[in-house]
């Protein structure tokens, strides 16, 4: 799998680049989940349902995940825009 070109971020099957395409797909799913968790965390913080310790732990966990994502993007030579795959008629994922 690989991206056709940056302007058309669809994932295509290519046996010679399967590792890169798989990494792109996995990191895209992780980034989508990270954004969902972050939005939910913000709602909980704004709603006042978390203790100060929980807020601190959540912030640290989200920062650590962002650092790890940056490391993995560097390893697989991916940019943020590479994770925003095109879903055809549905538009961009992220």
Automatic annotation (TrEMBL):
Protein species of origin: Fictibacillus terranigra
UniProt-recorded name of the protein: Gas vesicle protein K
Family: Belongs to the gas vesicle GvpK family.
Alphabetical keyword list: Gas vesicle
Location relative to the cell: Gas vesicle
Primary localization class, coarse: other
InterPro entries: GvpK (IPR007805)
């Amino acid at each position: 799998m690989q991206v056709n070109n940056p302007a058309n971020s669809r994932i295509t099957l290519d046996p010679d680049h399967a590792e890169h395409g798989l990494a792109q797909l996995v990191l895209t799913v992780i980034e989508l989940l990270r954004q969902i968790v972050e939005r939910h965390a913000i709602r909980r913080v704004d709603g006042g349902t978390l203790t100060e310790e929980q807020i601190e732990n959540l912030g640290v966990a989200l920062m650590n995940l962002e650092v790890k994502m940056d490391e993995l993007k560097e390893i697989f030579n991916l940019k943020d825009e590479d994770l925003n795959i095109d879903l055809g008629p549905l538009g961009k994922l992220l």
